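To close the chapter, one final illustration. This time we ask the reader to focus less on the individual chains and more on the assembly as a whole: which components sit near each other, and how the overall shape emerges from the parts.
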Amino acid sequence: MQNRILTFAEAVREALVQSMQADPSVFVVGEGVPDPTGSFGTTKGLQEHFGRQRAWEMPLSENGMTGVCIGAALGGMRPVMVHLRIDFLLLAMDQLVNNAANWHYMFGGKDAVPLVVRVMIGRGFGNGAQHAQSLQALFAHIPGLKVVMPSSAYDAKGLLIASIRDNNPVVFIEHRWLHQVKGEVPEEPYTVPLGKAAVVAEGTDITIAATSYMMLEARKALPWLEQAGISAELIDIRSLKPLDEETILRSVEKTGRLLVADSGWYSGGFAGEILARAAEKAFPRLKAAPQRITVPDLPTPSTRALARHYYPRHVDIIRKACEIMGKKGEEIARLAAAADIIPAEGELRFMDVPDERFTGPF
Amino acid sequence: MPDNDMLLSLYRQMLLIRRLEERIAEKYQEREMRCPVHLSIGQEAVAVGVCANLSAGDMVFSGHRGHAHYLAKGGSPDALIAELYGKVTGCSGGRGGSMLIIDKSVNFRGTTPIVGGTIPIAAGMAWALQMQQKNAVVAVFFGDGAVEEGVLHETLNFASLHHLPILFVCENNLYSVLTTLDERQPDRPITDIAQGHGVHADHGDGNDIIEVYEKTRDAVSRIRAGKGPAFLEFATYRWKEHSGPFEDTGKGRRTAEELHAWKARCPLEAFRRQLVSQGILSEEAHWQIEKEIDEQIVRAFAFARQSPFPEEGTLGEHLYAK
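The assembled structure is written out below.
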């Protein structure tokens, strides 16, 4: 069927359903997986459909249960763990890093851990310091893990099916503000390969590479840049590890300019990794210093009064891209002012929800 | 009581572990085995008595002090020693070393040196077996130190909740490196922790091979009957230092008197005397077994020495499974 539209959350759920139908060794486990709300809709009805042996509730033992899922994976199963907040995965760093990531290598390839850990960045509505962190750089640092961050419904389904079929531990990072994003999703099962970036829009002046939710802000920036006469090439990084360095560098060599937009922190963040690769490997072709847009090196404040200044938006991308292009301050200010529309009324004026329909659960 | 063939088999396995580890200690100073080694000398009865109750299809996990468990599960001395030498023929291809031992051919599914690290993994394996409706048991060995780790408690909770077919085996050797149990844990039976999670628990003398064998037999038959997990604590004592070939009584913590008292309760010697007195093991047979084991050990070290190192070009292999 053509033009079949699903939300990101529905696409994730469909990937789970189709993976479970195709392979009896696939099961889903997590705190609240069988709840009526179904992990923001992504696991809704799985237990009713597949039974308690395929969609499991889980004790509040993140580290122990990660080990348990590693063991189940070694025993021939394909577990999909679900954590409603990525912050909870910090409790499981021992099992995830020491065991899951290392297992295949440290035992000389004698065994493998086909494990998917779905985690969600819980931005917005006051979630604050321990429910809204963007921790992707931590996981992308570890050899042996794969780390993906889809930004569209299409990629959510394809990357999740690919992650479940993969014979390695995959940290599958969802952003809470992407769950309601709609897009075309074919009904049949398909995969989007891990380790491949996507060129979403072609351009010649500047490469904008973004992760996860920052892809949406970058997409919003694109028409404004066009208005300023800037032809931007937009790349969805999608897979942080393995990283598709080739696609990003090829684009940078073409445009000579790079702006990276990541939802994580500035210091030691993933944006810095992309900048470093460009500096190392595309330096002769660079026409301007590569730049990055991240959240500041601060914990996440809960209050919307501060959160609105914490998160970068499309206007920040517009400003930074114009600076890299050598646009004059006046022109940048004029463009940014025109682009920076904040509604005077309604939910969106608080700037702590992605759209009007976002009324919880959070 | 196990029959005579079984008794002799237990004896031979204990002797193999003892002599092999003595040889590791002897040769360690040649600095060819360039990885930490945690020896089980003095603790052999637990490994052997437990594994004798497991069949080929049952799975075993362990921790940093895992040589004995590997050998007791039917592991290869050649592959173990080659691993210590860092050779490509080692059971982990040389990438693991002494603390990271795996051999799926005997369902020895892995040792790791983060204390308690394999406990939840063993439970996950038991969970997989249960979901697949396979009739096998998973055993996991750990020390008294692991009782202080959160994952043990998390795993006991989960294993009990789902009646998983897992045997928890705590080798209580009273020390974490040089720190005594009473500096680390309150004065309460370790088995109470398992029982607090609704897990069947028992304890016994870990230096008495028959007691270990019989307690494990009872625990494993409970698990096989579908009665859920079981926890066994065996009291024993490590003769050597935490890691390395020497004794550690000179370091100002453990006393020579204490070590001497435990050596007087040597599990191997006690068992040998028992077998001799019951006429099961003759003096001649005893020396014959010693001779065969010595030959086996000589072969294992020769195999390890002669085996090649992994080639430089393989450094990047096995990062990801295909």
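Chain B has one domain: 4-311. Chain B touches chain A at residues 90-96, 100, 102-104, 109-110, 112, 114, 117-129, 131-132, 150-151, 153-155, 157-158, 161, 317-322 (CB under 8 Å). With these observations in hand, you are ready for the problems at the end of the chapter.
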